[in-house]
Design brief:
- The complex is a heterodimer of chains A (253) and B (212).
- With 253 residues, chain A is α/β, with parallel strands linked by helices.
- In chain A, the strands form two sheets. Chain A has a six-stranded mixed beta sheet, sandwiched between helices. A four-stranded antiparallel beta sheet of chain A has the order 2-1-4-5, with helices on one face.
- In chain A, helix 3 packs parallel to helix 5 and helix 5 runs parallel beside helix 6.
- Chain A contains ten helices and ten strands.
- The mean pLDDT of chain A is 89.
- Chain B is an all-alpha fold and 212 residues long.
- Chain B has seven helices and no strands.
- Chain B starts with a helix and ends with a helix.
- The relative contact order of chain B is 0.19.
- At the A-B interface, helix 2, strand 6 and helix 3 of A face helix 3 of B.
């Protein structure tokens, strides 16, 4: 579990996050949603330790992340995986080298053990046999899946996903969502997904947190989205008349 | 190490040969009609090259070639979130990405400077002997006259300091780049400009410190 408590973040005079407190549960897909500029990416980067909050605390299980020494942070980061919006694959490395990279850096596994683990992760994301390809030879969806394989290769306890579906067609987006969810449940990972993809919200939203102008405007789950009377949530999720009609139909059923 | 060394060899060879050649020809022109012995051409080319031209010009050129490349490479990794990805994994990115470049530069650039010094002296020979400014024996006599091994030490001190400056400045500019392609271009330019100014400033300080 990851707990964010009273997080504030400002860049100069601009306050980006205001008093955010959220519990992200283990074994669940925890979503941070909101419009562009709501502060989602900043919050995710703070949770992942890439940015420091102006005030507040982050707890990884019972450990206060912000009070750790550099060595302790390095240890805890071996339990962290992150999927980036642009995949962030090293384009000068093959798929296999990309996925093996964390193993090379942090384990004393033999070459064969590493290859076995890499192949298992690639198989898990349905990319078996693509070891020797370079990222430029892969489609956007495949790159995301390599990113997922790399982020789970060290068996992380915490997984951060920044806009995992951006730039993907709806079918591939659902594939990625399902993959992240099944990995989360199988390994009891605390997964935090930053998204504004409505399919993701309605498919994998175990624990949804809506940010609006840097504040937590609503929290709930995918079932509660339909019935909530929160105006900001309704305007965000059901933005088009078509979606509003769908919601009304779903409520009638 | 390969990129910095072998990758820069051709430009270093070209520049150093021509600098030596130009230095020899111009000094020979100034000696014309004076009582200064012509073997001084070899002596002056040797000392100018070792003390100043080889380390300074080579490193100014390398700041443009290697420094801008380092800034663009690291800046590109920052923009493509490669550095963030490494940091999330717990990797000390400064040590992982920058330290090897600094070490490679400290090893390779003094070698390039030594090659540049040798070729520059050879360039002076090629330009002045066949043209009849000085005989081969006189040029070699000049090279052997008044030799101060301390000057070679000074050349390597400069090479090490300049290598450190151009690598760290360039990597810093790339590592802390923010924004998109335009900012990356600016960072690359800043890497060259700041490195060049710093190298010239350091050149002056070293000259004062080591010759004072």
């Amino acid at each position: 579990m990851i707990r964010a408590k009273n997080i504030f973040k400002a860049f100069g005079d601009t306050e980006v996050l205001k008093d955010i407190s959220i519990d992200f549960k283990a074994g669940k897909t925890n979503l941070i949603i909101g419009r562009s500029g709501a502060g989602k990416t900043v919050l995710l980067k703070i949770l992942a330790g890439l940015l420091e909050p102006s005030a507040g605390g982050i707890w990884y299980d019972e450990v206060n992340f912000l009070e750790l020494s550099k060595r302790q942070i390095r240890e805890i980061r071996m339990d962290v995986g992150m999927l980036f919006q642009g995949s962030a694959l090293f384009d000068f490395m093959t798929v296999e080298e990309n996925v093996r990279f964390p193993l090379d850096m942090f384990t004393t596994m033999t070459k064969n053990e590493k290859l076995k683990r890499v192949n298992y992760c690639l198989d898990r994301v349905n990319l078996a046999g693509n070891n020797d390809k370079y990222p430029s030879e892969l489609s956007g969806g495949m790159q995301k899946r390599v990113g997922i394989a790399r982020s789970i290769v060290l068996n992380p306890k915490y997984l951060f996903c920044d806009e995992p579906n951006s730039g993907l067609d709806p079918k591939t987006a659902i594939l990625i969502d399902d993959l992240i969810r099944s990995i989360t449940v199988e390994n009891e990972i605390t997964t935090i997904i930053n998204t504004h993809d409505m399919n993701s919200v309605m498919e994998v939203g175990d624990n949804i947190n809506l940010l609006y102008l840097g504040e937590l405007a609503w929290k709930g789950n995918k079932e509660e989205v339909l019935t909530s009377d929160n105006q900001i949530l309704q305007e965000f999720i059901f933005a088009s008349p078509f979606l509003q009609r769908l919601r009304d139909l779903a409520l009638q059923e | 190490m390969y990129d910095i060394g072998v990758g820069s060899l051709i430009i270093v060879i070209l520049i150093s040969v021509f600098i030596g050649a130009v230095a020899a020809v111009q000094f020979a022109y100034q000696l014309d009609g004076t009582l200064v012995p012509t073997y001084y051409i070899g002596y002056v080319v040797r000392d100018m090259t070792i003390i100043e031209l080889a380390p300074t010009i080579t490193c100014l050129v390398l700041a443009g070639k290697v420094g801008s490349n380092m800034a663009a490479e690291i800046g590109g990794m920052r923009q493509k979130e490669h550095i963030d990805a490494m940091e999330v994994m717990g990797i000390n990115t400064a040590a992982y990405l920058i330290l090897p470049k600094v070490i490679a530069s400290l090893v390779v650039i003094p070698m390039l400077v030594a090659i540049a010094a040798f070729l520059s002296i050879w360039g002076g020979y090629v330009a002045s002997v066949p043209a009849g400014w000085v005989t081969s024996a006189e040029y070699i006599q000049g090279l052997r006259s008044f030799f101060e091994p301390y000057n070679v030490f000074m050349m390597f001190v400069k090479a090490f300091v300049f290598a450190y400056i151009l690598t760290t400045v360039s990597c810093y500019q790339g590592y802390y780049v923010k924004g998109g392609a335009i900012e990356l271009g600016k960072a690359s330019t800043s890497a060259v400009v700041i490195s060049d100014i710093s190298i010239l400033l350091a050149d002056y300080l070293i000259a004062i410190l080591l010759t004072g």
